[in-house]
Design a protein that fits this description.
This protein folds into two domains: 203 residues, L-asparaginase, N-terminal domain (Rossmann fold, 3-Layer(aba) Sandwich), CATH 3.40.50.1170; 116 residues, Rossmann fold. It is built from nine helices and 20 strands. The chain has an eight-stranded mixed β-sheet, sandwiched between helices. A four-stranded parallel β-sheet has the order 17-18-19-20, sandwiched between helices. Helix 7 links the parallel strand 19 and strand 20. The longest helix has 13 residues.
């Protein structure tokens, strides 16, 4: 049996950082990073690696960065059985969500991981995260990769990438998947929850090459003013807006606010409703405070995370779809991003 071939893609982030003379954490080389994990040389897999020409803190991630990662995976797709991306944790859920939409018909694992402490420190969580991610990426069933989706691995748990968000800047278990169960749990043994995996019926990868970042997010809060909302809805060339509402999709019933959203939709701008709650989903019409949103054509985002909603909106707005088609696709799961 041939050993699995895994490509490590190093983008930067805390996992590969070292302090400079001023005590500031900065990325260091892929070679130095891998030298800190000698166990990789004993791994039952053929492991190759590539680092970005310009390593970044994940706070600098943008659509160009996501498209670059997408291209690296697509260009190497036929050469490897799985991919492990070393990435800063701050925007990891955004990147995982974006890649899940860009990589259609994915039939191999793409696992993002990182750490809360640099790998050069004694107490780092980085070594275990990398080793476990590679081990998971190597798993096969009937001669094919067992995992066939974009995932995040952090502190013993494997999550669907577009169902996660980072909830802690301090704990090693920095990520949660509030509305979708684990894909795997790693302890003294690896427990695989295959019933939760995304099923792919095609071996033909489609790598999409465009995202639209003419979007905005409005977080509602008590006392928000119409002029604040208008300042965003009237941004030139705006194509889509995510509104983060209360509870199960509720918003103020102030007619000035509702009319502002209605006028925005009349201009062909999509508005997607996402709840501010960590657990639960948008159910427009459940309460009077969300009925008006439904009636003017605001789209329910169900239980999508903000990260997944943003990536999905960027993805769909970049496609040559009609407004009706985009609205329909936003309302259904196309990559396992919503229940």
């Amino acid at each position: 049996m041939n050993k699995p071939k895994i490509l490590i893609i190093y983008t930067g982030g805390t996992i590969g950082m070292i302090k400079n003379e001023k005590g500031v954490l900065l990325p260091f080389s892929l070679e130095n990073l891998l030298n800190d994990i000698p166990l990789l040389k004993m791994f039952p897999a053929d492991i190759d690696s590539v680092g970005l020409d310009k390593l970044i803190d994940s706070s600098d991630a943008d659509t160009d960065f996501w498209l670059l990662l997408n291209d690296i995976i697509a260009d190497n797709y036929d050469k490897f059985d799985g991919f492990v991306i070393l990435h800063g944790s701050d925007t990891m859920a955004y990147t995982a969500s974006a890649l899940s939409f860009l990589l259609e018909n994915l039939s191999k694992p793409v696992i993002l991981t990182g750490s809360q402490l640099p790998i050069g420190l004694l107490r780092t969580d980085g070594r275990e995260n990398i080793i476990a991610s590679i081990e998971l990426a190597c798993m096969q069933k009937n001669g094919k990769p067992l995992i066939q989706e974009v995932c995040i691995y952090f502190e013993d748990n494997l999550y669907r990438g577009n169902r996660t968000n980072k909830y802690s800047a301090e704990n090693f278990d920095a990520f949660i998947s509030p509305n979708y169960p684990l894909l795997a749990s790693v302890g003294t043994e690896i427990k695989i929850f295959e019933e939760n995996f995304l099923k792919n019926n095609s071996d033909s990868l489609i790598s999409h090459k465009k995202l639209c970042n003419e979007v905005a997010i409005i977080k509602l809060f008590p006392g928000i003013q119409v002029k604040t909302i208008k300042a965003i809805t009237e941004i030139p060339d705006l194509k889509g807006i995510i509104i983060e509402t209360y509870g199960s999709g509720n918003a103020p019933t102030d007619n000035k606010i509702i009319n502002c959203f209605a006028d925005t939709i009349a201009k062909g701008i999509i508005i997607l409703n996402i709840t501010q709650c960590t657990v639960g989903k948008v159910q427009q019409g459940k309460y009077e405070t969300s009925t008006k949103l439904r009636d003017i054509g605001i789209v329910s985002g169900g239980d999508m995370t903000t990260e997944a909603a943003l990536a999905k909106l960027m993805f769909l707005l970049a496609k040559d779809y009609s407004l009706k088609e985009r609205t329909q696709l936003l309302s259904i799961s196309i990559r396992g991003e919503m229940s």
